[in-house]
Amino acid sequence: MASQAYDPRRSNVKEEALAEFIRAPITGELTEVPGIGPKAAEALASGDDPNEKITNTYQLLGKYLLLKGPDDDKHTVSCVEHCDKFWAFLQSKGVNSYRSGIVQCIAEKCNILLPGSYDDTAFSS
């Protein structure tokens, strides 16, 4: 049975697509994120709660960063926990394909913007 958490080794995003996404400026189009196609973009924009609707890349990056906050006053969210929380959020929105790849792309992009926010070595086993 596969683990129900983020694992960068399960990313199906090609290295070239990840590198291009990291280098390129953000346009706001959700489909600019490797792994997000029209169906995933529609799933992210769905729902009754307007605070949970993701309609552009800026909101997706914001959601990722929001999940980094501490769970409580005593516990800082680790890189692994942070990525797992974002992976679970995508799952809750009905994004079932390329979920690990999307997490990796967003985490790597944020790490360029905010160095130290993602550490892929934390997932080594």
List key phrases describing it.
mainly alpha; DNA polymerase, domain 1; globular; 125 residues
The H/E string reads HHHHH
Give a quick account of the main beta sheet: strands, pairing sense, barrel closure.
none
Number of domains: 1
Please tell me the CATH architecture by its name.
Answer: Orthogonal Bundle
Total beta strand runs: 0
Average pLDDT number: 91
CATH class: Mainly Alpha
Structural account:
The chain is mainly α. Helix content is 45%, strand content 0%. It is globular. The model has no long low-confidence stretch (mean pLDDT 91). It has a single domain, classed as DNA polymerase, domain 1. The chain contains 5 helices and no strands.
Summarize the structure.
By secondary structure, the chain is mainly α.
Describe the secondary-structure layout:
Layout: H1 15-23, H2 38-45, H3 57-66, H4 79-92, H5 99-113
Helix pairs in contact: 4-5
